[in-house]
Write the structure tokens for this entry.
Amino acid sequence: MKVVGHKRGRVALVCAAALAVLATYVSVASGAPGNATQKRDSSTITFLVPEYSTKTVPYWKDTIAAFEKANPGLHVTLQSMGWQQAHDSTAQMIAANQLPDLVNTATIWLPEWVQANAILPVTTDIVPAAVQSRFVPALFQKSALYKGKNYGLPIAAAARGMFYNKTLFKKAGISKPPATWNELLSDAVKIKKKTGAFGYAFDGKGVQAFRYFGFFLWNNRGQFFTSKGKAAFNSPEGVQALSFLIKLTKTGAVPNPSGVAAEDIEPLFLAGRVGMWIDGNYFATQIASKGQGLQYGVSPVPVSRTGVPSVTWGVSDTLVIGKNANIPVVNKFISFIYQPSYRTTFDVNEGFLPLLAAQQSLPEFSDPATAAFIKLLPQSRFDPLNPNYSKMQTLVTTAMQKALTGKATPKAALDQAAAAFNKLAGK
Amino acid sequence: MSSLPTPTTSRRLAELRGVAPFLAPAVVLVGMFMFYPIGMSVWMALNKVDQFGHFSKFVGVGNFTSLFSDGDFRSSIYRTIIWTAAVVVVTTLISLFLAVVLIRRFRFRAVARSLLLLPWATSLVISTLLWQWIANPDFGALNHLLSSIGISHDRIDWLAEPSHSFPLMIGIAIWASIPPTTLMLVAGLQGIDASLYEAGALDGAKGWHTFIDITVPQLRPVLAVTILLNVIFVFNSFPIIWVLTQGGPAGQTDTLVTYLYKQGFQLYQMGSAAAVAIVIFAILLVFSIVHTRLSWRGVLQEKDERLW
Amino acid sequence: MASVALGGVSKRFGDTVAVERVDLEVADGEFLVLLGPSGCGKTTLLRMIAGLEVASDGAILIGDRDVTRVHPADRDVAMVFQSYALYPHMTVHKNLAYGLRRRGMPKREIEERVAETARLLELEPLLARLPAQLSGGQRQRVALGRAIVRDPAVFLLDEPLSNLDAKLRVQTRNELIRLRRRLAVTMIYVTHDQVEAMTMGDRIVVMNGGRVQQVGTPLELFDRPNNRFVATFLGTPQMNEIEGRLSRASRGVEFVAEGIQFELPISAGSEHPRDVLLGIRPHHLWAAPDAVPGRVSLGRGIVEFVEHLGNESFAYLTIGGGQTIAAEVEAGSTLSVGAVLELTTVPERLHFFDLATGGRLDVLQDVGSDNERTPVGAREIHGEGAGSDGDDD
Ligand SMILES: Nc1ncnc2c1ncn2[C@@H]1O[C@H](COP(=O)(O)OP(=O)(O)O)[C@@H](O)[C@H]1O
Ligand SMILES: [Mg+2]
């Protein structure tokens, strides 16, 4: 009797355990392919946007309402997320095979989405030739080009330049913004000495930190990657760039880069306590609203020595098309939103530069700062498309911090990062 | 020797048979939400896995050997232990003091209690952002305070130097851990039989002796639980460090959790991140076992209870 | 050892008056029992003596020292709590030693005292155990030991036996009595159990509603209760109460109630006639088929039911006015319900109380002398109830 009871108890337990495992399998199994084969409503698409500002979501709601009014029977479901989560959310959606029809994404992530086989290249089915021809040609053709195919449409464009405080320049007796590294260094020191304000500032801590090395790398004829996608940032050009940043920091004319991110430097510049700072054209919008009459100018990023071509780091975000997209509706929606009036509202709201040829002459883009940036556009270079781009960001930022805190020489730090990158990228 | 089960064993088995149907749902849930993820993590730690969850290669203990050959990882372990020990020890001492004060009746006790709960009013991320602002070298209240009371007029860059930022973050973690800890200890103090204090008073105990001879031993089970929970929470605490320094500069303020995050979500080494998680799990498991052995020794007897 | 004196001690908790103007003197070495129903303020009074409550009014003296505002630690009193309040995290040995350690006694002396106390209370085999590993009776002995070991000036006990089962309670009670004789220490003992009070106390303080009702030796309280409360609170079964009227009669005074009428051969006092409450303990009321000559008859009653307590039996009878009263019958007698019995008593055992105030009326002072009790038919009437020891041959 005892034995029987004993056995039955064990059987019950085993059953319970088996049930647990089974339940898990069922939930996992129904999680993935179940949604992939889910039948979709042929008149509806989903659109995922990151929030550039508080104006982003209302703008898209209005635009979608206008679209649905103009196309009765079609529906667009809007999803939004913060930029902070944008990458990981998108990756998770891809992993779950639930990527929306259209996604406003950062251009640098394109290779990842392409590698994951999650997005479609642009064809005339998706973007009619007539719509394609509305763009500034360079922007449409260059910014989303990866492995010979165009993987999306530019949806936001900006350029970066060096903002300088004219009042501080005047106090320090500097007549024009620096064009070379040497001038940058001596002007920064002058500002610090004569005004007490920081001469120059850069982000050595935040998500943008690697760019503040990149500006110097590119303006010293350096590259982040070789043509085969291997690390190139540890080239002599890169070592010179990082060494220069250290030299600049050691003058004391720069706030400790390990302690400040872009979000910390922007208010400092707005308060008139930083002489020079590289930022995107959207920063001009902030100065206009919070700068309290700050006198500033915009100039190209200084080059290592005269004769080196100046490069501006352009910014573009891309509208990509999910691999399961509802093409007919997507086609209509794209044609609708890339009309100059909608684009201009968006650009003005968010402080972006015009994408469409028809926008360039509009009065909305005629103020001096915007004009200066539109002038810089031809020199702009975009984020290189490399599937391991974000790994490079982390590794380069760490290398910068190592060198800046004296834990390694610039060369050792960059070499170590390059070796790690090549290993992670499987090169 | 008979092969029949001993009376106790057979009774236990009979009990088990009786409770099995009631146990089953719990077993299913625990299986789904604990053992499955734990099993997955272990399996991931033995593979190369990308950010999309694709298992590309079985690497055995490869992830672990490369982790332990990374000096930054090893110093993260060391730093996490310092971080946890400092936060938990100081939090426990301060909270114990506060709890003892707060169970007394005094004017404004209600005010004092609600002030104490203030750090709890918002999420840790929000209050850490507040601290970031306080620690801002140019506009923050901290430097302003230091210069107005004449301690230092320098522009102290709190978050740039690990020697400043790490202690500051430990301080913030203590500040954030005090409310729940104090609350638990207050509950524990209120649970102490008042007649013990009276017996103590008649036996000649006053003040400090009452605390040491009655309060502390009676609070031991609650103290043990708060310490265990705090160690687990603090060891795994992410927001403070992530918001303030992201473990930087150059990983010099990384703890295991921020290190894990970087491995998993910046370098997309999911297998390696899972290996870090296993290391964290192992450390906490060992700690929990040792802690439980030491701190509960005698307590169960004292309560006249037995673990089955 | 020390005497204890309370002068006008009161304790108020907000609007509740727990103890009201208590005056009390406890002699050095006396065993005083505080007795009263639950909630009457016994514990509060004891705690004030211990220093665990501060008196709202009045003064407390231990020996010659005014300790009204002295910390409990400095009063040299020990207390045995109802819940025992043993330190759960300390072994029996440590529980015993703690009070001595706190008082800075040398270690060797502590060991001696603990060993001695443990021997006295037979705790030696338990010294290494924790309180949770002890039975109720053992815990009780440890609580006792913790007080004894300190050799305090005053020993306070708050219902120390109430958590024990009946058998253990009697056993421990006897142990306590023995112990008390050996220690000869001043003890104040709280209980709501009259048997404990009667068997243990040198004197008993009966309390009700925060006030002292009567202080006296057990026999004084039993034989000459000050008021209705004391009279009915002591003695089981409870004293019978009959409302009636006392008035002058031909041979003394006459008591008249519904269906009852008898005369007492005493000279009437000045205040007759008056409304009174007649109290008769069931032990002092005898119910039998025939009247016993020479006793006062209360008339006849009809048996409703009979209660056999083993060595004594009581019948509950309906009397003339429809009231039910209890009376002793022959032990083990087989009376049927409905039987009619004659109720008789002796005048010395009657108590009269003022109907309005409940205060004792000394109507019978003239019957015999105050203190010398008349052993009329005592054997039959008393059975073996409490308070009978005075009648032993
Ligand atoms: N701490 C207290 N707060 C309020 N009322 C109390 C407190 N202690 C006792 N009392 C009240 O005082 C009265 C006497 O209580 P107590 O001395 O415990 O009675 P006893 O011990 O005779 O049962 C009761 O009415 C009780 O409710
Ligand atoms: Mg009581």
Summary: The first helix of chain C runs from residue 42 to 50. The mean pLDDT of chain C is 85.
